[in-house]
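Suppose you are handed a protein chain with no further information: no name, no annotation, nothing but its sequence. What can you learn? This example shows the usual starting point.
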Amino acid sequence: MEDNVFAPSTVQRAILGLLDGGYTDRAIAGRLRVSERTVRAHIRALMAAAGKLGRFALGAEAARRGWLDGDELAAIVACPAPRPPADGEGAAPAR
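A reasonable first move is to predict its three-dimensional structure. Written in C-alpha coordinates, the prediction is:
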Protein backbone atom coordinates (compact mmCIF):
# COMPACT_ATOMS: atom_id res chain seq x y z
CA MET A 1 0.00 0.00 0.00
CA GLU A 2 1.32 3.47 -0.85
CA ASP A 3 2.20 5.86 1.98
CA ASN A 4 -0.38 8.48 1.00
CA VAL A 5 -3.35 6.14 0.52
CA PHE A 6 -4.03 5.49 4.22
CA ALA A 7 -4.42 8.35 6.67
CA PRO A 8 -4.87 7.26 10.29
CA SER A 9 -7.61 8.91 12.31
CA THR A 10 -6.80 11.17 15.25
CA VAL A 11 -7.58 8.29 17.62
CA GLN A 12 -5.31 5.94 15.67
CA ARG A 13 -2.54 8.52 15.75
CA ALA A 14 -2.98 8.90 19.50
CA ILE A 15 -2.75 5.11 19.88
CA LEU A 16 0.45 5.11 17.83
CA GLY A 17 1.91 7.83 20.02
CA LEU A 18 1.03 5.96 23.20
CA LEU A 19 2.39 2.69 21.78
CA ASP A 20 5.59 4.56 20.97
CA GLY A 21 5.63 5.70 24.59
CA GLY A 22 5.54 2.09 25.80
CA TYR A 23 1.92 1.99 26.96
CA THR A 24 0.05 -1.31 27.10
CA ASP A 25 -3.30 -1.79 25.38
CA ARG A 26 -5.03 -1.50 28.77
CA ALA A 27 -3.23 1.74 29.61
CA ILE A 28 -4.02 3.18 26.18
CA ALA A 29 -7.68 2.27 26.62
CA GLY A 30 -7.72 4.04 29.97
CA ARG A 31 -6.04 7.15 28.62
CA LEU A 32 -8.39 7.41 25.64
CA ARG A 33 -11.46 6.20 27.54
CA VAL A 34 -12.23 3.37 25.13
CA SER A 35 -12.24 -0.40 25.55
CA GLU A 36 -9.15 -2.56 25.13
CA ARG A 37 -10.98 -4.32 22.31
CA THR A 38 -11.31 -0.99 20.47
CA VAL A 39 -7.61 -0.28 20.95
CA ARG A 40 -6.70 -3.71 19.59
CA ALA A 41 -8.97 -3.23 16.57
CA HIS A 42 -7.26 0.07 15.78
CA ILE A 43 -3.82 -1.53 16.17
CA ARG A 44 -4.81 -4.35 13.80
CA ALA A 45 -6.01 -1.79 11.23
CA LEU A 46 -2.79 0.20 11.56
CA MET A 47 -0.63 -2.92 11.21
CA ALA A 48 -2.57 -3.93 8.08
CA ALA A 49 -2.16 -0.44 6.58
CA ALA A 50 1.56 -0.45 7.36
CA GLY A 51 2.11 -3.77 5.61
CA LYS A 52 1.36 -6.43 8.23
CA LEU A 53 4.19 -5.26 10.45
CA GLY A 54 4.47 -6.40 14.03
CA ARG A 55 3.53 -4.13 16.89
CA PHE A 56 7.06 -2.87 17.52
CA ALA A 57 7.98 -2.28 13.87
CA LEU A 58 4.72 -0.36 13.52
CA GLY A 59 6.15 2.58 15.49
CA ALA A 60 9.14 2.95 13.19
CA GLU A 61 6.98 2.65 10.08
CA ALA A 62 4.48 5.17 11.48
CA ALA A 63 7.29 7.66 12.07
CA ARG A 64 8.65 7.08 8.55
CA ARG A 65 5.22 7.73 7.05
CA GLY A 66 4.69 10.86 9.14
CA TRP A 67 1.79 9.41 11.10
CA LEU A 68 3.29 10.56 14.42
CA ASP A 69 3.54 14.24 13.46
CA GLY A 70 1.11 16.88 14.62
CA ASP A 71 0.27 19.16 17.53
CA GLU A 72 -3.11 17.52 18.16
CA LEU A 73 -1.37 14.18 18.62
CA ALA A 74 0.98 15.66 21.22
CA ALA A 75 -1.98 17.18 23.05
CA ILE A 76 -3.85 13.87 23.16
CA VAL A 77 -0.84 11.86 24.28
CA ALA A 78 0.12 14.45 26.91
CA CYS A 79 -3.33 14.59 28.54
CA PRO A 80 -3.37 13.13 32.03
CA ALA A 81 -4.86 9.73 32.62
CA PRO A 82 -8.36 9.78 34.08
CA ARG A 83 -8.47 9.74 37.87
CA PRO A 84 -10.51 6.97 39.47
CA PRO A 85 -13.35 8.33 41.63
CA ALA A 86 -12.66 8.70 45.33
CA ASP A 87 -14.85 6.80 47.78
CA GLY A 88 -18.37 8.09 47.48
CA GLU A 89 -17.73 10.20 44.37
CA GLY A 90 -20.02 9.43 41.50
CA ALA A 91 -22.27 7.29 43.65
CA ALA A 92 -26.01 7.73 43.55
CA PRO A 93 -27.25 9.96 46.36
CA ALA A 94 -28.66 8.17 49.39
CA ARG A 95 -32.41 8.43 49.82
